[in-house]
Amino acid sequence: MKNATKIIWANLLLCSYLAFSYYYFNGWWYSSIGTILILLFSFLIWRKDFLKVVGLKLSLKEFFITVSLTIVSILGSLFLIIHIGSKHNIIIQFTSFRSYYHDIFYILNEEIVLGSIPIYLLISRLKIRSLYVSIGLALIFTMVHFVFYKWIFLERGIIEVQTLFTLFLVGIVRNNLIIVYKNIGYSWALHFGWMVILFGCLPEWVESGKVVTEPDRFNLFLGSYEMLIISIFLAGISIFHMINKLDSNRLKANHGS
Fold first, then answer.
1. Residues 6+ apart with CB under 8 A from 129
2. Is residue 212 packed enough to be buried (19+ CB in 10 Å), middle (13-18) or exposed (0-12)?
3. Which of 194, 195, 202, 212 shows the shortest CA–CA distance to 92?
4. What does the alpha-carbon distance between residue 19 and residue 93 come to, in Å, rounded to a whole number?
5. Percentage of the residues of the chain whose pLDDT score is greater than 90
6. CB 111 within 8 A of CB 187
7. What is the pLDDT of residues 140-158, one digit of tens each?
8. H-type helices in the chain, by residue range?
9. Within 10 A of 18 (CB to CB), how many other CB atoms are there?
């Protein structure tokens, strides 16, 4: 009976993520409702461990590092997106509080549901190796974007191969950060810093004044050679750091026993 109840909560958690995280009906506040529901159902499933499972168990030091990294990520993303946009005759227009508010929570929802929860279940419960989990979830993360933009989102389009490869590398970086630090603070900071500029703001074609569609934003900016090179570098560093950290923890555990 208890397992059946948890399955119901888990299905409601997933439905809350799918129904309230994105701009299906242009409701800028929906994503925060989704966050509340996701946390509620997570608590009902995992009780006292739910903060650890969803990746929100941060120390005060980790919280301040997250804030600092968010600022750096926003500034770096702004510079990079303006640079890439200038090559395609695109300008960046700032929008309103509503767009940025939405970004805070829909990215939080993604980090919890597509990052922290599956990582916790696969590594802590099923005992699958961290590297396999990171790569496997990065593939799923990539395909989710392809499927959602091809068939589900209001603005539909095809995400190109180079963009998908960059998404895969970004997914590895995100997963490795969660695995190593056991929270979503740093991964959320990098994710938010990029998306708040690319999707919170409005890139426009200079000649026509039309807004660049969401699939085109992915392909032009995330699929750029600049982002591909940066993603390859970050993915390599994160894999090296994760392997070193896990080996170090394993050695400490062996000495302790």
1. none
2. buried
3. 202
4. 28
5. 78
6. yes
7. 989 988 998 888 777 789 9
8. 2-20, 30-46, 50-54, 60-87, 97-110, 117-120, 130-147, 161-181, 185-198, 214-217, 225-256
9. 15
